[in-house]
């Protein structure tokens, strides 16, 4: 197949290869330096404002630890869904509720495992960044191993760069697959990415995050898991730059809603040098997700205040009602540990709150019942 000629502004070129030419991107930094349009600057400012609002409100709520965990799990679920996994936020909460009771050794479905792996990898990465560790190729490879633990496909190379070519099917009918660079070029390209990250980039952190994400996905350094790892790196990079106090934004939800455009915008950068359109898409994703996180946190804070007013007393039922945001998914016997009460009291609390409509049973079973806080889940999902 003839090699497609690309304009000079494209940050790479196609190289003849059978059956389809592969794309050879230029290493970072992007040359010549990007000219950021006024429209993009304005979008950066608005996205930065929305992210700042999220950090501001999140630090004022009494359930920030639960919010932190919940948003990581939402991000994990959305990132897994982009890759085709059939998993819901409730599935992840249910797993973590059962795990302390010794059920962790049970077989976990692959789709759920992908989300759990993402949660573990993101949490690990944030801990490393929080301890002052830089984003290195070694860390990236470790995160890849965590993402693909027990979900690898035959032939996948785990924790190291791929040793074979890959072909990415196009979302457009009739368009040839996108073929990332040859394995021999990956190490050098990824070293340029590592250097770019460690030098702090060249632009506003939100713009640099978009460049880093595009470059990672275009190099496609691993045999599988590139999408999940690339989206995870967005959060780690912004956190490492001090731009995110905590991961209260989750870009995967936006990318999942606009999956075809997500892929096409990156390919347009490679083939046309369409940076401005990609930056607009990426920044709008961060801006809209930050706005969503702010609204979600505000609604949760209002819900907490409503529970505190509706259940002001000192009975066990009232005390647990005020803690529903802390324990949004539970089993009756969990309350024995949470509240240091008897089994009989735990079941009474459940009956009271179910009668009030605050919780509902989700398994449909007669034994081993599990409950979720209805309004909390409505907001989180």
Layout of helices and strands, plus pairs?
Layout: E1 12-15, E2 22-25, H1 38-58, H2 64-82, H3 89-98, H4 110-130, H5 137-147, H6 183-198, H7 205-219, H8 226-240, H9 252-257, H10 259-272, H11 275-310, H12 316-321, E3 329-330, H13 334-339, H14 343-355, E4 359-361, E5 371-373, H15 374-380
Antiparallel strand pairs: 1-2, 3-5, 4-5
Helix pairs in contact: 1-11, 2-4, 4-5, 4-8, 5-8, 6-7, 7-8, 7-11, 10-11, 11-15
Q: How many distinct folded domains?
A: 2
What is the mean pLDDT? Answer: 91
Helical content, roughly?
55-70%
Put simply, the count of helices is: 15
Rg: 23 Å
What letter string, H or E per element, gives the SSE order? EEHHHHHHHHHHHHEHHEEH
